[in-house]
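Researcher: First entry.
Model:
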Amino acid sequence: QVQLAESGGGLVQPGESLRLACVGSGFTFSSSKMGWYRQAAGKEREFVAGIFSDGTTYYGDHVKGRFTISRDNAKNTVYLQMNNLKTEDTAVYYCTGGKRLLEDWGQGTLVNVSS
């Protein structure tokens, strides 16, 4: 069975940084496209970042220049480095990937940016 598990969320102040991680299992991670989405309270789920197996990356308009997605295939892990966090980044961050991209999701990790 496919399993995705996010970690690394927490409470930070505006301008600070945070690094999220997502560990995948039950599929061939190294050949899979992976992505991060987020969902704020009362809002729709929003694309944050994606990465292909060859390392090509894509970012949502609101995070480009501040966030960086990367992967470590040996650890079946995809990361999201978030710098210069803003209050608008507050949301539950979800990981997705594999053959069932946008169908298989982790449980999410909460990022709360507040002063």
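Researcher: Second entry.
Model:
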Amino acid sequence: QVQVVESGGGLVQAGGSLRLSCAASGSIFRINVMGWYRQAPGKQRELVAAISSDGRNYADYVKGRFTISRDNAKNTVYLQMNSLKPEDTAVYYCNVRGSTVRTTDFNSWGQGTQVTVSS
């Protein structure tokens, strides 16, 4: 099994910055993709950014403001969020997909970290 834990959320003013961290642990053989999603109350969960060996993908609304990166040795992914806007307010979830040591595919989610941006 693979565990995923996010951290770094908080309350910031518009224009401020936050750095989210997500650490995966467990019986990991290979991680194929790590990504950040967010979900505001009453809304669908949406992709924010993802990273894999193929590169990085960003939602249009965060391009130029957010940066996703990872530390492969630590099975950790980061999301640097700059120029935050009130509409960025949401619970941010980390998603990790890959294979376990038994070559079983996994798709694990963290419990989420709250990001609140005030005007």
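Model: Note on the second entry: The chain has no helices and eleven strands.
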